[in-house]
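Margin note from the TA: students keep mixing up input and output lines. Inputs are the sequences; the output is the structure of the whole complex. Example:
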Amino acid sequence: MADEPLWPEFAAAALAQVRPPATPFDPQRYELRYRLWPTKARNAQQAARRASAGYLLLRREPLADGARLQVRQAAVQFSRETCHVAASLELANDALATPRRWEVESWMTAADGRETPLTRASESGELTADAWIRRAAGERRQPRAAQVTCGWSLFDALPRLTAAELRFDLLDELALLKPGHRLSPRGAATFKLASGPGALTWWEQLGPGLLPYSWWRAAEGPVLAAFSLARGFLLDPRAGEGVTW
Amino acid sequence: MKRRTFLATTAAASCLRRSTAQPQVRRPNLLFIHADQLHVDAIAAHGDRLVRTPNLDRLVAAGTSFQRSYSANPVCCPARSAWYTGRCSSETGVVQNGLPLRRDVPDLGQWLGARGYRGYYAGKWHLPARPLKDSFTVLQEGTGLGEQCDPATSRCAAAFLRSYREPEPWFLNLGFVQPHDICHWNSSHAEPVPLPYPSLAGELPPLPANFEYDRREPETFIRSKRRRSHSLLWQEPHWRYYLWSYRRQVEMVDAELGRVLDAVEDHGDAANTVIVFSADHGEGLAHHQTILKSFLYDEAVRVPLVVCWPDELPAGVQDREHLVSGLDLVPTFCALAGVPAPPNARGRNLLPLLRGQAREWREFVVSESAVTGRMVRTPEYKLIQYEGDATAQLFDLRSDPGETRNLAAEAAQASVLRDLRGRLAEWTGTLEIAPVGERVRRRDDPDAADE
């Protein structure tokens, strides 16, 4: 059987590890923790590393006219170095949780946890009515499409999505423009989760610069998992333990 | 900043530099960026209309893109051993993935590091028994999954370029993993399934013109690649889904490249920075019904090679004439740095070509594969042969650029065959071949130790 993110066997292996929150989910104010899950483990060593490949932490709080989303992300490399990203986004109250302005910082740490010199970088940016603006050492400005969002925003947007297809330009990590994405509902199914059977709805994301992603959402709940062929994010309250905001 | 602005800025910076009449020539910064498993034609600027590569296109537009550029050995470790030493893979000892690089052969990091450059590395290295930290200051070492590693590589590069403040010139190497993740895709699809995303049906690329091929192939190749291919059970829809998926992975590395190019423009010394972009090898991409690499058809062995140096070298050149090799990078980097190349470096300095000043150039290029395989390519012909194999392949690339008619057995081509074999023997006779153990020689698949 081929490994495809939408294939029941593939999805089942991922979702069986996921435990939905025991308390009602408040889409306005939450903290979600996801474990980074490299799906392609070809040997025992790689499989062992699955457990510590990194994390994505999201913390949302409402603002008067939108929301603030804080992000902590870590991607552990095979050499046990880690790429860290810390971001703060101001989101619009719209279907795509469009990022209006943001600050992003990244750095590497070595296997011993020490920061690697010359690897810390900061960027900020904003989406105005007609432009995408990025600021690092200089300022870059380019026209924006009508519908734009980023991957982190999709975690916020999915719990509110209805059954209509969305089309947008993806600002991957708020820096890499991948235009022409679409997010489409694929239906509902019941899977065995770590806490027992769960009814999930799923969505597929297709577009340039990405292998197809499938997004899995609990009824009235948050995104439980999102994955492509190679990598995914699984809801896991223990992910990123000890990370401070 | 748009490219036009970038060029204007760098031109102004260059004029300023010249007008101050510095007595000493400042050595350029060197940025070597490599992708892994990038088919030379899977780039929009090279004619592929089904892939979106604005940043590769940006590089191609800013420099010289060699269309007849060949990997020294189309598999990861051997190709990299040749890039970084200027020696053939049969000399470095890295004739297959996973084999150690000879200790007595210096690599570019060590060579330039001892001659005034500060060497830095981020990304995939993949030269066993040559610890990266022994050759470069390591910003990040990525290997394995491109989707996991490449964003870290580009972030490190951007941070480095925006924060480097030392007086010495730098030699920054970025080893992107993508689109190598297609290996994982292929191994996951050995058992074909219906197209999982019906909405893609209208977007799937067509099969290449040379999907059907001349079956008279060397048994060595058939044994090592054809009979083991993940694609054995594929039908046309599966091939086309594979072609679609590969292009998405090319777009991933293109996006990361964009982050780096933006940072190059930001770092204030763009006019004095040479960018060299290449790939260790290509990808089958359904040509001759192949996937992956480690064979000598053009889809695996021909690779992108782009060189950009604002103000100093012409922009927007697609060189379709000259035969160049991964072996040429060491002599070229050394010439750019103003230092001699290491002893016995086999390639040639590309600068005269890049400046349009080369009066003569090589008549043929050689690539190696799978311990016993070699290819000799002239402007007109290409010969592929494996030691001890009864079947050779000869293609007339003027009339058959897709390598679909094997002429090796035709009597009318006997003199061509003889001439090419003579050239190959002459070339091989100049090499200091490293001994290869019998166990390695017996191993069929040179790609077996990938990752």
